[in-house]
Every structure is written in C-alpha cells, then in structure tokens.
Design brief:
single chain, 269 residues, alpha/beta, Rossmann fold, seven-stranded mixed beta sheet, globular, binds S-adenosylmethionine
C-alpha cells in the first residue's frame, strides 16, 4: 500500500467509527451545535467535514434560504457528505481542497459568512513531520477572520494543549497506535490561542474547556470505536488499555463513558 492509500484508509476508518456509532461523540457535537446556534438563512463555513456529523444538522438549520460550505482535504469525506446530502434532498457546497492549500482562498468568500464552525480540525493544519510550528494554524485563524462578515461568529472547538486529551494524543503518536503516521500534531494552550485570536482581530472571545465524554453502550463498543477511529494496528485490547488508563472509563446511568475534553470558543469579527 502506498502512503497515500494508507492515509485514505486511515480516514475511511475514522468515518467508519463515527458512522457506526453516531452517539459516541454526541456530547461534543451537541455542544458545538448549541454554541453555533445556526439560524435559517445564514451562510456558514464548516472547516473539516469528517463524516458530516455536524454538517447535516447545520444544513437543516439554515434551510433552503441559507448556505453551508463544508471543506475538507480528504476526497472520500467530501464524496460521502455529498451522497448523504443528496439522499436527503438537501443542498451543500462540499469542497475538496488540496492538502497544501486546505483553506478557502477565493475572494468571493471574503466578508461572506455569518459563521465559521470547526471541530477537531484546527490541529491538523500543522504537521510535525512536514511543516512544523504554528504557521498552518495561524493561517487558518486569519482566513476564518477574513471570510467572516463584520460581526460574524467564529465557533471553534479542538483539543487544548497540556490536558489529558492532548497527552493521550501524544502517547498514541506512533504508527502502531495510529497508522500510518502516528498523530504528529501540536495543540495550543489557552493563553497562546487567545493571544492569537486577539492579534487576528477577533473580539468578544468566550472560552471554555469542557468534559464531553464519549458514550458507549458497552466496553466492547468503546474498544472497537477507539481502535478503529485511530486506525491502530496493535490489538484492540492494547489500544483500549492506553485510552482507559489515560482518559478514564466508567459506567454511568446505564451507559459507559470514556473521558474526553475539548475547548469550545465563540468570538466575533
Ligand atoms: C478529527 S477529523 C474532524 C472532522 C469533523 N469536524 C468531526 O469532528 O467529526 C479532522 C479533519 O481534518 C481533516 N484534515 C486532515 N488533514 C488535514 C490538513 N492537512 N489540513 C486540514 N484539514 C485536514 C480531515 O480530513 C478531517 O476531516
């Protein structure tokens, strides 16, 4: 398998886990959707389509008078979203962007969007194995700002640096625990992120780092989800043992929860 095919397969596994158990990440998707508060007629850019788990509710909320532009660098993410949307008789602009230029760049979108939404994607704009540093993420924040209309809202969620979740990602940054390239991404601390947002020009920044545990009906389900999501090549038991130890796993109100924490922020242009 070429590295390109291996990366395609990695994201196929990621979609498979999310699509098979749509309830697993329900807490975080509900949180960002509530914060985004999408209204009929709004124009929204979603950066990082994934399997479309946030895109579809956004499309339904803005309705026929609104517009959702969802961008991603993985062709199959865009293709699957387009199929799901067409099957439901809805409309989306699902745009595949090159990995070297993973952001909207057309002048037609400058000062255009009422909201920019992105979850679990910001850290992907920098890759320790290719383009180290913060430049990709800084460019992302600047582009989000440029494409928002004055008064438009940025709704952003991702892993915060120096937390249990970021330490978990650092631990699985090996090809065996996350094939084929590990997880070579850094995460902003709160201070760094807020400083960058202010430098970019964002105002009224409201920030929180919240527990949004992943939910499962059984330990077997959790084990398969974690293993598949990160495309581990070690055994399911081995990959889940690390997750359990580092993130915590407990029974609660008739279901099981794996610890997960993300920041959620809202800011205006
Ligand atoms: C963890 S997923 C999150 C997807 C979706 N927002 C969700 O929460 O379900 C990260 C997303 O970043 C995209 N991605 C991968 N490499 C990227 C890159 N170099 N630049 C920008 N996005 C990238 C992936 O295709 C994927 O859709």
């Amino acid at each position: 398998m070429t590295e390109e095919d291996a990366i395609l397969y990695r994201w196929e596994q990621w979609r498979r886990a999310n699509t098979q158990y749509p309830g697993a990440r329900e807490n975080e998707i509900r949180r960002i959707y509530t914060l985004a508060h999408p209204r009929p007629g709004e124009k929204i850019w979603e950066s990082g389509t994934g399997n479309g788990c946030l895109t579809l509710p956004l499309i339904e909320a803005v309705g026929e008078t609104g517009e959702v532009v969802s961008t991603d660098v993985q062709p199959e993410n865009i293709k699957e979203l387009q199929e799901a949307v067409t099957a439901r008789g809805l409309a989306v602009k699902a745009l595949l962007l090159p990995v070297e230029q993973p952001l909207l760049s057309s002048e037609q979108y400058e000062n255009y969007f009422d909201a920019v939404c992105s979850i679990a994607t910001l850290h992907h704009f920098d890759d320790r194995l290719k383009r180290p540093g913060e430049s990709g993420r800084i460019e992302a924040l600047e582009t989000f700002y440029r494409m928002l209309r004055p008064g438009g809202r940025l709704i952003l969620s991702d892993v915060l640096g120096d937390t249990e979740t970021s330490r978990y990602f650092d631990t699985i940054d090996t090809p065996e625990r996350a094939a084929p390239r590990g997880h070579p991404h850094d995460f902003f601390t709160k201070e760094r992120l807020l400083g960058l947002l202010q430098n970019t020009g964002f105002k009224n920044i409201r920030f929180e780092c919240t527990d949004v545990p992943w939910k499962f009906v059984s330990e077997e389900e959790a084990r398969w989800f974690v293993h598949t999501l990160h495309n581990a090549t070690v055994s399911e038991e081995e990959s889940f043992a690390v997750a359990k130890k580092m993130l915590g796993f407990k029974e609660k109100d008739g279901h099981y929860e794996l610890g997960w924490g993300l920041f959620f922020l809202e800011a205006t242009k």
